[in-house]
């Protein structure tokens, strides 16, 4: 998916500005948006996994972060693609890359191998959120200094969503990877 989106980016997007800021009234169609819809469908599959865990009475395996993330990302993916939100393709590529690393880690655990890079998976996710902010800042700059960008309203919702994920993943990181303080 990330590779398909990259091929579409390099073959169809004329410059970096257009990659970050689709022209206003861009239609959500064509190869780039095809990959956006595939991404959206993949998020439905991820949510179905969460739903199966809930229905299987394995709630102790789930955290608020997990349920919130997997349910909201389905909604945000749909909104971003259907509103032709600018920069979605860059976020799609980074998110897919993070998920390849994450699911690679989970596969190794399932096979009985315990990789020593568990913390790196969460670090990589946090880097993804910070890079999303950088991309969104460029989009805002191009929007307000040019003739506007497509999907700016969904950009606002996405920015709020990314902020919430950054806080939740940072909290998860602090609770799981910070050195424990011993009582004196």
Automatic annotation (TrEMBL):
GO terms for biological process: fatty acid elongation, monounsaturated fatty acid; fatty acid elongation, polyunsaturated fatty acid; fatty acid elongation, saturated fatty acid; sphingolipid biosynthetic process; very long-chain fatty acid biosynthetic process. GO terms for molecular function: fatty acid elongase activity. It is found in: Membrane. InterPro entries: ELO_CS (IPR030457), ELO_fam (IPR002076). It is a multi-pass membrane protein. Pfam families: ELO (PF01151). GO terms for cellular component: endoplasmic reticulum membrane. The chain crosses the membrane at residues 34-55, 67-84, 90-113, 125-145, 151-170. Its main location: membrane. It comes from the Eukaryota. The keyword Cytoplasm does not apply. PANTHER family: ELONGATION OF FATTY ACIDS PROTEIN 3-LIKE, FATTY ACID ACYL TRANSFERASE-RELATED. This is Uncharacterized protein.
């Amino acid at each position: 998916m990330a590779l398909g989106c990259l091929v579409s980016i390099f073959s169809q997007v004329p410059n970096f500005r257009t990659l970050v800021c689709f022209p206003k009234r861009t239609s959500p169609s064509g190869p780039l948006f095809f990959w956006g819809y595939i991404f959206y469908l993949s998020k439905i599959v991820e949510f179905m996994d969460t739903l199966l865990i809930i229905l299987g009475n394995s709630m102790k395996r789930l955290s608020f972060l997990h349920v919130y993330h997997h349910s909201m990302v389905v909604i945000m993916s749909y909104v971003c693609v259907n509103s032709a939100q600018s920069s979605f393709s860059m976020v799609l590529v980074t998110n897919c890359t993070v998920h390849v690393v994450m699911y690679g880690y989970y596969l190794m655990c399932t096979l009985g191998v315990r990789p020593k890079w568990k913390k790196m998976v969460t670090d990589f996710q946090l880097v993804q959120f910070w890079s999303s902010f950088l991309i969104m800042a460029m989009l805002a700059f191009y929007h307000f200094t040019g003739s506007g960008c497509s999907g700016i309203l969904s950009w606002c919702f996405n920015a709020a969503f990314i902020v919430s994920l950054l806080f939740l993943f940072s909290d998860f990181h602090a609770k799981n990877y910070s050195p424990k303080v011993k009582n004196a």
